[in-house]
Amino acid sequence: MTIWKAVLLGLVQGLCEFLPVSSSGHLILLQRMLGVESGAVFFTVMLHVATLVAVLIVYRRMVWQLLCHPFQKTVLYLILALVPTVLVALLFKFVPPFDAFYEAAEEGAYLGVCFLFTGCILAGSDLLRRPRSRQRGLHDMRAADALAIGSMQAVGVLPGVSRSGSTITGALFAGLDRKAAANFSFLLSIPSIVGGAVLEVPDALRGGAAQIDWLCVAVGMLVAGVTGYFAIRVMLRAIKRRGLWGFAVYTGLLGAAILVDQFFTHRFF
């Protein structure tokens, strides 16, 4: 890997982690286009860690408040929302034949379908969300809301299915307002990224630690962290003003283009 590739991948990760377009799907696509293979899994995990720093900075006051008062409802609901994701992640990691399915997904085998799915749920989030008069804030959440959001996030472990898009959509379907949906989604990304790193880093290091270019990793992480910070700010403004229609159109068209390549042109897949 070269420095410019690390910069480009870091830029894509930082922008796409918090926009509802699937950062993991974009990284797989870009790695295919750039021919990046060795050390790619570890590099991808470290880019996710960099975006974790970005969300901690943006939500530093809220995170500190949650740490100081760990027995409040929001903390409980974050833990509850993690349960479906953890179960699905462990299933894909350790249980045949689901592990083989997930390995194929990480290679991009289902990327087109997953991007199309993301486009559909993003479009549905605006069409099917509750009227404003019936929407609730973060402090009015219920346990059932957390489980619904967590179940949507569990689907988001597949590359091409946006984690933030899935959780925001789940929150809107559950009846939260747009601000509460975005805030809960970004807070939920913190333990999700940590858990993903814990699962993936050991295998990635065993698979090719000697081939990792640590300078490229550092550069990519720096770029991902900075762009991730601004992407969160953009996303918070966008979801309040315009909804998710633009992202739905983009991911739908991208999914269709990838399917054409997977079945007909075979330029990258």
Automatic annotation (TrEMBL):
Catalytic activity, EC: 3.6.1.27
Protein name stated in the entry: Undecaprenyl-diphosphatase
Biological source species: Candidatus Aphodomorpha intestinavium
Record bears the keyword Zinc: no
Subcellular location: Cell membrane
Catalytic activity, reaction form: di-trans,octa-cis-undecaprenyl diphosphate + H2O = di-trans,octa-cis-undecaprenyl phosphate + phosphate + H(+)
Recorded topology in the membrane: Multi-pass membrane protein
Extra facts: Bacitracin is thought to be involved in the inhibition of peptidoglycan synthesis by sequestering undecaprenyl diphosphate, thereby reducing the pool of lipid carrier available.
Segments traversing the membrane: 40-59, 75-96, 108-128, 180-199, 211-232, 244-264
GO CC term (a single one): plasma membrane
Role summary: Catalyzes the dephosphorylation of undecaprenyl diphosphate (UPP). Confers resistance to bacitracin.
InterPro entries in the cross-refs: UppP (IPR003824)
UniProt keyword terms in alphabetical order: Antibiotic resistance, Cell membrane, Cell shape, Cell wall biogenesis/degradation, Hydrolase, Membrane, Peptidoglycan synthesis, Transmembrane, Transmembrane helix
A Pfam entry, by short name: BacA
One Gene Ontology term from the biological process aspect of the record: response to antibiotic
Gene: uppP
